[in-house]
Amino acid sequence: MLKELQILKSHGIQYVRNLRTQPVSDLFRGRPVISGNMTFEEINEIATLCPTNAIEKSKGSIDMGSCVFCKECAFRLPGKISFTNDYRIASNAREKLVIKPGCEVSIRLDESKIRREIRRLFKSSLKLRQVSAGGDNSCEMELSAAGNVNFDVGRYGIEFVASPRHADGIVITGPISQNMAEPLQLCYDAVPFPKIIILAGTDAISGGLFAGSTAIDRSFLDNYPVDLYVPGNPVHPLTFINGVLDLIRGRKE
Ligand code: SF4
């Protein structure tokens, strides 16, 4: 017994104490900040090199729902575009993921868009079914990491479950390949009301690098409202956890 206690002590504290305020490395690529004085030529240059058309050509705004956080635009225009380490970038309003030049405010959820039953039912317990709809396993691994000993999202009663019948909602990763369109629908149909939908990662939010491909079928998203968009390529566990907590509990700090 003494030996086990010594081993535990030698491991130290392994979990993240406060998931809401945990600092991350400056190297983390989170919310972008864009200078308000880019020239038309500069905007055109970075918009042309962006692999996912995430940069809007007339204004130079960056859509985090399409951005793959490759940072090529920031490398091309250092001093005019930078990526902060602000990882709290999830929102329930798609338009809030578009960062305009000169904007430095952090991303918030639109409280008026949160369905009332979500706060009423899931404040202390939320079970989610993850659907990898043509994903490349990167977001899937990060979502899995959210439940490991470090992040331990289970402390908030948030867990991934195996059956959609035991779930309160689904988390979609990947661009939704044609082959996964029907299984995704079947999974969604099996989830009881109020059927939360979370899109995790650039591919799920916009199709990412696969946007416009004939190999994907995103018609599912035309039929149902999305409760939360979680940007990232892949999504960081802290981005996912904070986005979900903002959705089910609100942001107090
Ligand atoms: S970091 Fe995002 S906006 Fe910039 S070039 Fe890469 S994908 Fe485009």
The kinds of small molecule bound in this structure are: iron/sulfur cluster
Q: Tell me the number of structural domains.
A: 2
CATH architecture heading of the largest domain: 3-Layer(aba) Sandwich
Structural class: alpha/beta
Largest sheet: 5 strands, parallel
What Rg, in angstroms, do the CA atoms define?
19 Å
The backbone outline, from C-alpha atoms, is globular
Binned, the helix content reads 25-40%
CATH class of the largest domain: Alpha Beta
Give the beta-strand count. 9
Number of helices: 9
Low-confidence stretches: none
Could you tell me the CATH topology label of the largest domain: Rossmann fold
Question: How much of the residues is beta strand, in percent?
Answer: 5-15%
Question: Largest sheet, order of strands side by side?
Answer: 6-5-7-8-9
Element order: H for helix, E for strand: HEHEHEEHEHEEHEHHEH
First-to-last CA distance? 41 Å
Mean pLDDT: 96
Report what the structure shows.
- By secondary structure, the chain is α/β, with parallel strands linked by helices.
- The protein folds into 2 domains: 32-99, Alpha-Beta Plaits (2-Layer Sandwich); 111-248, 3-Layer(aba) Sandwich (Rossmann fold), CATH 3.40.50.
- The chain has helices at residues 2-11, 40-49, 72-76, 116-122, 138-145, 178-190, 202-206, 220-223, 237-248; strands at residues 32-34, 62-63, 81-83, 98-99, 126-132, 158-160, 169-173, 196-200, 228-230.
- The strands form 3 sheets. The protein has a 5-stranded parallel β-sheet with strand order 6-5-7-8-9. It has a two-stranded antiparallel ribbon with strand order 1-3. It has a two-stranded antiparallel sheet with strand order 2-4.
- The protein is globular, with a radius of gyration of 19 Å.
- The termini are far apart.
- The model has no long low-confidence stretch (mean pLDDT 96).
- The structure holds iron/sulfur cluster (SF4).
- The site of iron/sulfur cluster has 13 residues, from helix 3.
